[in-house]
Amino acid sequence: MTTTTVTRPRTTDGASPHQVLDPPTGSRRWASRLIGALFLAGFLVYGTGSILVSSVLQGPDFLDRVGAQQTTLALGAFLMIATTAVDIGKAVIFYPVLERHGKRTAVAYVATMVFEMAMMTVGVLALLMIIPLAEKSADGSLDAGTAQALGSLAVDANETAYQVGQLSLAFGALFLTVLLFRTGLVPAWLAGLGVVGYATHMVGAGAEIFGVPLSLVLLVPGAIFELTLAVWLLTKGFTAAAFEAPPAFPVSPRPLALPREAHLRR
């Protein structure tokens, strides 16, 4: 039996062209609206959770109030952790859209989002430790002063983990917005706002880690970008020409051997 060599186009990483040219997220409008909705959902879910938690943990003697407001604290913490599913889902749906124009950027964005969510989860788990601390302080099994100090340490741990996560987010999203600007998936002014917003957010988060309170001011441009991007994707969507453009990486031929009968009847 002999073989005939046939050339079938394949991408440089071994995937067939139709696997790359057809985004698994579906249509442009579907992907745009879902990503936009998840951006808004992340703001709503985490913001609500943060407000609930802050209402319980205000003041130097917050541990005394935790016993009567355990449900509020637990609900707020649950909502903050629920943001993990929202943001990871957003990154996963974004991935095939970005991969067509820059696989490294797509992978980096997903990786930094996963790290950010891991850090935020660690911080929220630290907050949940306040509930048993309050119980032990109330029943006298733990000194009130020690319990309050440990509770304050848990709050600080959450804040530090949050800022480290935000630093990771800003780093990955900075590359995301540069890709959006380069490819024209969204208008240049919007992508440019994102580049500026995440650059300042990264500086602010880094400053907070080292004890310089700047993040509240420097996160504003990034927050404006995310809200504007969400509304844009919900109403306009990704630019059609850029979304449907061929992949940026080249396609190289790879020979494929097909068997056929080698012996002919005499």
Summed up, the domain count is 1
Give the proportion of residues in helices. over 70%
Binned strand content: 5-15%
Structural class: mainly alpha
Shape: elongated
> Secondary-structure element order, as H and E?
EHHHHHHHHHHHE
Low-confidence stretches: 3-25, 251-258
Rg calculated over all Cα atoms: 25 Å
Instruction: Provide the spatial order of strands within the biggest beta sheet.
Output: 1-2
Distance between the termini: 16 Å
How would a textbook summarize the main sheet?
2 strands, antiparallel
Mean pLDDT: 84
**Strand tally:** 2
Give a description of the structure.
This protein is mostly helical. It has one domain. It is about 70% helix and about 10% strand. The protein contains 11 helices and 2 strands. Strands 1-2 form a two-stranded antiparallel ribbon. The longest helix has about 40 residues. The protein is elongated, with a radius of gyration of 25 Å. The relative contact order is 0.16. The N terminus is likely disordered.
